[in-house]
Amino acid sequence: MPTTPPSAARRSARSRRRPRQPVKQREGIAIVMALTAIAILALIVSEMHLSTSSSFRIAFAQRDRFQAEQLARSSLNLTRLLVSIEPEIRQIVTPIYQAVARRAPPQLPIWNFANSMLSPFCDYEGNLDALKTAGVATSQVEGLGKTGGTCQILAASENAKLNVNLQIGAAPEIAKRKIAQQLFSMMGGEISPNPYDKLFERRDRFGNTNTRMDIIAALIDWWDVDQQATMFDPRTGTVSQAGSEDDVYQRAGLGYRIKNAPYDSIEELRLIRGVDDDFWVNFVTNDDGDPSVRKLTIYGLGNINPNEAPPDVLLSRVCSLARESTLCADPLERLKFVQLVSTARMMLPLPFFTKGEDFVNFIQGKGGDTDLYPILQSFLGESSPMLFLPITLDAETIKQLTSSFNPETQIVSIDAMGYVGQSKVRLRTVVNFHSRWTPPPPNAGRVSPLGVLHYYRID
């Protein structure tokens, strides 16, 4: 009788124990595998898309930032060119000014109008209609055209501010005395009590009290080269030295010492003892984005431009030499002076003073019928309560004040902004236009008509 081979029997047994999978079940596994592969591929494609999109946006942002920077550079150079041709513009308006004021015009603050005068270059499309109305053949003007962005210019005279730095070529002892006297006056030292007293009575975050004298000494000690502490006596207006400079910065845990070298930037004032946010807002600036409202500077020769300086800066210089006058000792007279100068500048945005003597005559109530004080008298009335009382000065004080004011600006802050898309680039610069400036040794040469950059920063 035939028998089944053992191997065949084993295969038959296994087949009976493990039935074959249905066709539908095998198809389900294939679908799962296909969906898994698709999901993985989708994830890879999504990651590639995200990476590519990010790179694309970064490239666009870099392109916009580069264009914005070039717009800012162009507006800066255009402003420098505009300031350099101020003498030629002054010659054009000289006949008109002489006919009205019967004297030669002073330097024109052309930098104050840079943003509006250069607006066709900064915003061509926005000014196209105005240019066509004015009959300007835009196709024949080099530099005019679509730029893909806009720019803005903010410029201000550094000679219109109180210089707390060692002036170039000045004797250190004379510079110390002038700076101390003007800072004391600006901080309201002549009048007590006054609203600023509380600023100098509170403690800082290190538990120290910083009086007016402490801050004045700290501002001077930072740049003077000696190791002696500065002492200012407001009664006599003299500066002396007493003992060594206490290193309050190390004891306060700030990690730096007194520099004993001139300031390099306005921001460096933030390092000075007692110069906190409250001091900054009251005596430096209440708007870091607008250089025209800043009261202190580290540039210039020490003279103040009376046509450009804020009224309280003018008062600080006058009162540093004429403390006993009514204009300095009477808070109401000080307020009248500030309001009167501010109102006159708003009504007639032209320079009033041709030389320093004109401003000294103004505070004395002197001058002819084309000088500022007589003009205000005729406009407001001789007994108007808005007019401050003229002050009387001796010959020596008149001489010192006359030499302290110079209606000419040689150093200009120029902030140029470029805008393209979501990108904004701001160039903060300080440009020296002084014709007699020469570079320090061992360099040699003459100043360019476009000025020399004292400070340059890209934000």
The strand line-up of the biggest sheet is: 1-6-7-8
Radius of gyration: 35 Å
- Overall helicity: 40-55%
- Strand residue percentage: 5-15%
Count of DSSP strands: 8
Individual helix count:
16
Number of domains: 2
On the 0 to 100 scale, the average pLDDT is 85
Q: Show unreliable segments.
A: none
How would you sum up the global shape?
A: globular
Query: What kind of sheet is the major sheet?
Result: 4 strands, antiparallel
- Distance from first to last alpha carbon: 104 Å
Structural class, by secondary structure, is: alpha+beta
The helix-strand sequence is HHHHHHEEHHEEHHEHHHHHHEEE
Describe the overall structure:
There is one protein chain. The protein has 459 residues and is α+β, with helices and mostly antiparallel strands. The protein has two domains: 124 residues, no CATH class; 238 residues, no CATH class. The chain contains 16 helices and eight strands. A hairpin with a 2-residue loop joins strand 6 and strand 7. The N and C termini lie far apart (104 Å). The mean pLDDT is 85.
